[in-house]
Amino acid sequence: MQTTRSRAARQLLQKSRRGVGARESYRCFSCTAPTQQATPPPKSPQDGPGGTTHFGFETVAEALKEQRVKNVFSSVASSYDSMNDFMSLGIHRLWKDHFVRSLNPGRHPLSTPPSTSTSSPNHQPGWNILDIAGGTGDIAFRMLDHASTTNHDAHTRVTVADINPSMLLEGRKRSLTTPYAHSPRLDFIEANAEDLHMIPSASIDLYTVAFGIRNFTHKDVALREAFRVLKPGGVFACLEFSKVNNPLFDAVYQRWSFGAIPLIGQMVAGDRDSYQYLVESIARFPSQAEFRGMIEDAGFLVPGKGWEDLTGGIAAVHRGVKPL
Amino acid sequence: MPPTRLANSLLGSFRAASRRPAVVYRQTCAYHSYDYAAPPPFPPAESAILSSAYAHVPAHGFTIDALKLGARDAGYLDASTNLLPRGVFDLVNYHLVTQRLALADNVQFPDEAEQGKKMGVGAKVRALTLARLRANEPVVHRWQEALAIMAQPSYIPASLSELASLADEIWFLSGDQSVDSSWYTKRASLSTIYSATEVFMTQDKSPDFIETEQFLDNRLQDLRKVGGFMGALSEWVGYTGHSTVNVLRSKGVPV
Amino acid sequence: MASTILSSRSLARKAARNIQFDFLAPSTISASRQPSRFQSSSPPHDGATLPPKSTPSKTPIHTLTTQQKAFLSSALRVNQTGELAAILIYAAQSPILTRSHPHLRTLMKHMYEQEAGHFAYFNGVLSRHRIRPTAMYPVWYAAASFLGWGTAMMGREAAMACTEAVETEIGTHYNEQVGVLLDWARKCGERGEGLGPELDGLVGELRRIRDEELEHLDHAVENDAKSAKPYELLTEVIRGGCRGAIWVSERV
User: Fold this and answer.
1) Looking at the domain C66-250, which fold is it?
2) Contact B79 A108 (CB under 8 A)
3) Are A264 and A275 in contact (CB under 8 A)?
4) CA–CA gap between residue B34 and residue C233 (Å, rounded)
5) Where on this chain does S-adenosyl-L-methionine bind (chain A) (predicted)?
6) Does A107 sit within 8 Å of B85, measured CB to CB?
7) Which of B118, B181, C116, C167 is most buried as measured by Cβ atoms within 10 A of its Cβ?
8) What is the pLDDT of residues B21-44, one digit of tens each?
């Protein structure tokens, strides 16, 4: 069922690309081009009629990016792990472990003085974590494991939000093998990171987004939304592919990502276009310093220099803290 | 109080309201200006969490628990400790930096003109070093933990640079003005002595740390002996060289 | 050939100086200072009078950026090293030169004393502003003494050529610093800030010291520096050495 769904979506994507390619000399989606798109554009104030954004190296109408990103992730949902393995040379698991360990989620019951925990309504037991674009539950399961085993915290909750039902389905499926499958500590919701109306303001301790933010149409809107839902003192943490620092290593890495990954994607998953998009979206993503600036613009305080490079900058962890 | 410092604090009180840069730089040995007050060593949010956390150090040690309790006391969440990218080392560093900067206010030397007798640079260095060691007293039972954190490979450069800043601060406050090779030897030897005495102090059980004080005095005494010997040696080399040249010149050798 | 190179160089230098005096920092230079640009040497207290009256004391003082602090630290460190080298060169040259040319005694003494004054000034600046001295101190000590002794042994012309080469490099270096500081002053002035009395005073002192160094250069040329035997080779080697030493001292 999964395969037929993803194949259908893939065909849709390819069809729409081909259709426009025939009509126009350059690879650009105008607002009116694909009639196949049934989904109405999201009701975001930035979505002017002529607004365009980037889809990989293509320029597409903003309304379309969301749909096309959805298509990409629908098509790769089942092979999501192998895709990440190619993109990160296989070390994304270590990055995610490090990401979660450094955030140290969960409240150790012994270190909690009973007086403070009962007196202040802000200090409920455990953390309230929102994992955006975490459909497959990679980060969520790690968070819950860390809270339970390292901090002996049985209260920390994770809400997994993803725009893509196929990814959420994959995550639900995987959660069945974890102890959190039917517990109130894990929840899946379908939501757009730019519009989290179902999440009350100032309710979240930790907002994480791992390998997701580069696919957002309006990163600034998503950052402001993150700022809204976080409690004062809450943490925004983002793990994302970034810019390699060493020019020599960068040359090798660019060659690898643009030369090999789409090819491997075609051979392993039979889906060249989705992998091509992923590579291009990584190259498009702002540099560490630029992204730190965007986090600061949304109102966050950034700790230290604002980011931590992983494996020479292939990926980077960005953090921001909402001021009191 | 040296007149420059007085002038600095006066100027500082006038200009406290001026805009301060968000990025805080405390680079060692960079141009130190007296025209405006130095920026605070930590940004406000970090400072609030760290100062509250520091109050929990005697009970909880230099641990993540102390940081979390501090964050809560300051009105932040447990998660807010992510504002400190180096975790517990930031707490140790807070102690090091604040105590170093406190030296200037904590140790006041009597005005030389009033006292009549001049207090030597050596005596001032001793007084300042002792004052800095005494500032470890409230956390001395936790200090071995801190030393272990500072000795972690990724934190060694920062720890050493902070030690160098402390040595520089002590020599500067003692009024030492040498800007030749001895600038380096003075700072290096004081750093060595200070860190050795600091380790000694963590095991000192004597009342009021008398043994630590003696240990420090002995080390400074050794330094004086070595310094005196090196001074005499270089003096001798210089004298012999000059007289050799002069003897040669008097014999008509064209040098 | 050599003299044309020199004159064109000094012309360019003088032109640069005038440009800076006239245009770069109208705000920091009061009108009363303007005529003094034609004097090669200003009185030593000149810098103290520099804080201009046009800037009232309420003008906010510019907070130096990290880069600006780093620039000041390395520039002032180089200045101290340069003056150390200068006094050592003159100290090594004087006994040998004055033995064969007694009429140079007063000139050498005058130049040495000026350099000693500069050295004392920069020593004070370094200790006051907590800038570390160069870590190569003993190396420069030995190199400068040897350079002074070696050129003096080659004769009066070579010694003067050495002075000319060294003072050219040092003068250029001071000139660059004055240029940078005046540029900061101009940019601060645009924002309604001042550099503060410290840096205004420093600009004045740097100017005075630069002019004295260039005066030494003139003295060296008057005393037949250009008739030193391998003039080109000697000056180029010494100037290259000076630039290398400046490069190193800026860093360590």
Assistant:
1) Ferritin (1.20.1260)
2) no
3) yes
4) 45
5) 136, 162, 192-193
6) no
7) C167
8) 333 334 455 788 888 878 788 888
